[in-house]
Backbone:
């Protein structure tokens, strides 16, 4: 599998650097963040092998991914949606990518329909999955793009917090987005994150990390 | 607007369940909180007796009581949200 390492000040810049080296577009690649810091972000960008229809190299080989893919294909067929379902390679948990034309309706308002599809998929796959194991369903990389976007927001907010010393409250976000922010900032020695408020208006606050013992 | 308040409450319950399923990292949501959010939906007069919305909400509440997986509860709540949209 063709891959390249990209470096940049932001996640987007790092991905773009790798894409230029590979001569590929964002739609055809998987992005793995190697490190994210206030000064530099390093990513590994791998070209998706479209010649492998389902279980690609590095995908879970226990057959669960294949079962999940077939199941989602069946669901989409019943819904009258024409789309291709592939298993994202080298990911844990199992991630299914749905691609096709005009799939906006499948994402729905703030990803609601996509999320519902994921819930149904996990319920239907229940007996094939170990306890706590889940399958992630993504449409046209919507979820991945959202995660990248909120990570960018987190890093930008962290830079501002370091400059001003004031905490910043971000917009209300879904749990997986808040998780992406907490993960993005967990290794930052100066800036931390916490969530406040109640669902569905729960927000992340990015602020200076308190010294230990205070 | 009829149905809007109900949709908001159902979405709140869904968000709570999804937060449990996704494990945002700083959540401490108990089944009691989820059950309360579903009961808040059921208390709304605009959700008619005998409607599919009420039926799905009741099933979601039972699922929480029975300790069913978060995805199952979420799926049932999405069904309630869908039925709410159809009834409008």
Residues:
């Amino acid at each position: 599998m063709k891959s390249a390492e990209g470096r940049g000040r932001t996640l987007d810049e790092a991905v773009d650097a790798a894409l230029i080296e590979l001569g590929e577009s964002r739609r055809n690649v998987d992005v793995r963040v190697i490190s994210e810091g206030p000064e530099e972000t390093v990513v590994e960008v791998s070209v998706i092998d479209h010649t492998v229809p389902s279980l690609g190299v590095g995908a879970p080989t226990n057959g669960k991914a294949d079962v999940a893919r077939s199941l989602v294909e069946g669901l989409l067929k019943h819904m009258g949606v024409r789309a291709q379902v592939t298993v994202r390679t080298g990911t844990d948990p199992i991630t299914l990518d749905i691609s096709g034309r005009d799939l906006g309706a499948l994402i729905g308002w703030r990803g609601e329909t996509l999320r519902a599809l994921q819930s149904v998929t996990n319920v239907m796959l229940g007996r094939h999955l170990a306890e706590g194991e889940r399958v992630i369903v993504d449409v046209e990389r919507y979820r991945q793009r959202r995660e990248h976007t909120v990570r960018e927001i987190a890093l930008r907010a962290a830079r501002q917090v370091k400059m001003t010393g004031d905490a910043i409250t971000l917009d209300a976000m879904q749990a997986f987005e808040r998780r992406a922010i907490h993960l993005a900032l967990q290794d930052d020695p100066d800036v931390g994150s916490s969530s406040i408020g109640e669902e569905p208006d729960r927000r992340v606050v990015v602020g200076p990390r308190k010294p230990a013992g205070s | 607007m009829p149905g809007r308040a109900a949709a908001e409450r159902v979405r709140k319950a869904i968000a709570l369940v999804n937060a449990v399923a996704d494990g945002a990292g700083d959540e401490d949501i108990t089944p009691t909180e989820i059950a309360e959010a579903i009961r808040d939906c059921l208390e709304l007069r605009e959700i008619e007796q005998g409607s599919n919305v009420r039926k799905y909400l009741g099933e979601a509440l039972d699922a929480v009581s029975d300790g069913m997986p978060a995805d199952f509860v979420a799926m049932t709540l999405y069904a309630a949200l869908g039925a709410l949209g159809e009834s409008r």
Observations:
- Chain B has a mean pLDDT of 90.
